[in-house]
Write a structure and sequence with these properties.
By secondary structure, the protein is of the alpha/beta class. The protein is built from 17 helices and 16 strands. The protein has 2 domains: 189 residues, Rossmann fold, CATH 3.40.50; 186 residues, 3-Layer(aba) Sandwich (Rossmann fold). Pfam families: PS_pyruv_trans.
Length: 412
C-alpha cells in the first residue's frame, strides 16, 4: 500500500538571495523524506517569483508568496481570527489566504531562520521573527524551530517576545553551546542540541561552464574570499570603509601567501542593489579595485548553495564573513578563517576546536592579523584538514538530529 505524502511548510528562508538560507531549504527538501516518507512541501518565501526558477529538481515543492507586508497585513490578522475560532471550536474551512491555508493543510511547520530573537538586531527584525514563527502557532499547527542561533535575550522587547513564542514551539533546535546557554536563561523545556542543517547538504559535482573557465584562467592554488554586505553595514557603522578594508586584505593575501584569490558572493540577487541579501555589489567593488592583478578573480554569478560549496572545496583556505560559507568550509574540511559579527560563528568553530580562527569584523582594521592566520592555516593545512575531518562525524550526526526531531513531531 502506497504511503500518503506528509505535508510540510517551510518558513524563514528562501532559495534566492541568501544561499545560506537556500542551503537549509535544499537540505530539508532532500533529507526529510528519508525520515518520514514522501513529502509535499510548501515553501513560504519572500521571493516567490525568483524561487520558482530555483526549485530543486524532482522535489515536490509548491512556492507560496509570503512577503513581510503580506505577512503583517493579511496573514497574521487572518491567523488571529483563526486562533479565536479554534478556541470556540469553530471550523476553519473559511481560511483561504494562501499562506495560512498552506500551513493549516500541513502536518508541521519547519522554521529554518538562521538566527532569531537575538539582541541588537533591531525592533523590525525581532517583530518579524515573532510574526513568522507565530503564524503557525496561531493556526494551531506544530512548529519546529530547526537549527539556528538564538539569544541573548537581555533586551526587554526581545525577551518579552521570545517568552511568548519559544515556549509554544514544539521543539527548539539549538545550533551550538552559546545558543543553548542563552535558551537556558529562559527556562525552556523544549530544547534539543543540534548542529546546522547545512552540514547535511550535498556538494555540487560541477560548476557552470563560464565559472569553470574563470577558475581555469588562474594557475595554482587559491584562497576563496566571501565578503558580506551585513558585515559591511556593521563595520561602517563605526566609521570604517569595508570595501577598502577587504581590498587591502586581498592584496595582502596575494603578497604574503603568493596564492591566487577568488572573490565570490554567498548571497546574490540578480538585478538588485546592495542589501542584506545581496553580496554581489560588494564583491564586484572589491574585485574592481584589484582588477590590475591577474591573480585575483571576481565571480559575479547567482550560484546554488551546492555550487558555492564546490568552489569552497577547491580552494586551499576560505576567508569568509557569511555563516553558511563557513559551514561549507567545515563540511568540506577546508581550513576556514571567519570574520564575523555574532556568537553563532564561534559556537560552530568550537565543535572543531577552531575558535581561534574566528575574528570580529574589527580585525579588518589591521588585515595582517587575518593574513597571519591564513598563513598559519596554509602551513598546517594537512593537520587542520585531519582535525576538521575528525570532528565532522559527530557534527553531521547532530545535523541529522534536526530531521529526527521533525519526524517525531509529525508522528505525534
Amino acid at each position: 500500500m502506497e504511503m500518503s505524502a506528509r505535508r510540510v511548510s517551510i518558513v524563514g528562508a528562501a532559495l534566492s538571495a541568501n544561499k545560506g538560507a537556500a542551503a537549509m531549504v535544499e537540505t530539508v527538501v532532500a533529507r526529510l523524506p528519508e525520515y518520514v516518507g514522501p513529502v509535499q512541501f510548501n515553501l513560504l518565501t519572500t521571493y516567490p517569483s525568483a524561487d520558482r526558477e530555483r526549485l530543486p529538481p524532482h522535489a515536490d515543492v509548491r512556492v507560496v508568496g509570503l512577503e513581510p507586508i503580506r505577512l503583517a497585513s493579511v496573514e497574521i490578522p487572518v491567523a488571529l481570527l483563526a486562533f479565536v475560532a479554534r478556541k470556540l471550536h469553530l471550523p476553519l474551512g473559511w481560511v483561504r489566504t494562501r499562506a495560512s491555508r498552506a500551513i493549516l493543510d500541513s502536518d508541521v511547520v519547519v522554521d529554518v531562520a538562521g538566527i532569531s530573537f537575538a539582541d541588537g538586531r533591531g525592533v523590525p527584525i525581532v517583530v518579524y521573527n515573532t510574526l513568522m514563527t507565530g503564524l503557525g502557532l496561531l493556526l494551531g499547527v506544530p512548529t519546529v524551530k530547526a537549527a539556528q542561533a538564538l539569544g541573548p535575550f537581555k533586551g526587554r522587547l526581545n525577551h518579552f517576545l521570545a517568552m511568548r513564542v519559544l515556549p509554544a514551539v514544539a521543539m527548539v533546535c539549538a545550533r551550538g553551546a552559546a545558543t543553548r546557554a542563552h535558551l537556558d536563561t529562559l527556562g525552556l523545556k523544549n530544547v534539543v542540541d543540534v548542529s546546522d542543517l547545512a552540514f547535511s547538504l550535498d556538494e555540487a559535482t560541477h560548476l557552470p561552464a563560464d565559472i569553470e573557465r574563470q577558475l581555469s584562467a588562474i594557475t595554482g592554488n587559491f584562497v576563496t574570499v566571501m565578503p558580506s554586505s551585513v558585515v559591511k553595514g556593521i563595520y561602517e557603522k563605526s566609521g570604517g570603509d569595508y570595501v577598502e578594508a577587504v581590498m587591502r586584505l586581498v592584496r595582502s593575501l596575494r603578497r604574503e601567501t603568493e596564492l591566487n584569490v577568488v572573490i565570490v558572493p554567498h548571497s546574490y540577487r540578480i538585478g538588485h542593489g546592495e542589501g542584506r541579501m545581496n553580496d554581489g555589489p560588494v564583491c564586484q567593488e572589491v574585485a574592481q579595485k584589484c582588477s590590475d592583478d591577474d591573480g585575483v578573480v571576481g565571480i559575479d554569478a547567482d550560484l546554488s548553495a551546492g555550487e558555492l560549496r564546490h568552489i569552497v572545496s577547491r580552494g586551499s583556505v576560505l576567508v569568509t564573513s557569511r555563516f553558511h560559507a563557513m559551514i561549507s568550509g567545515l563540511a568540506t574540511a577546508t581550513p576556514t578563517v571567519v570574520v564575523g559579527w555574532s556568537h553563532k560563528y564561534k559556537e560552530v568553530l568550537s565543535d572543531f576546536g577552531l575558535e581561534d580562527y574566528g575574528f570580529d569584523a574589527r580585525a579588518l582594521d589591521d588585515s595582517s592579523v587575518i593574513v597571519r592566520k591564513v598563513q598559519e592555516a596554509i602551513a598546517h593545512r594537512d593537520s587542520l584538514v585531519t582535525q576538521i575531518r575528525s570532528g565532522l562525524p559527530a557534527v553531521k550526526d547532530r545535523s541529522a538530529r534536526n530531521f529526527s526531531v521533525i519526524a517525531d513531531v509529525i508522528a505525534k
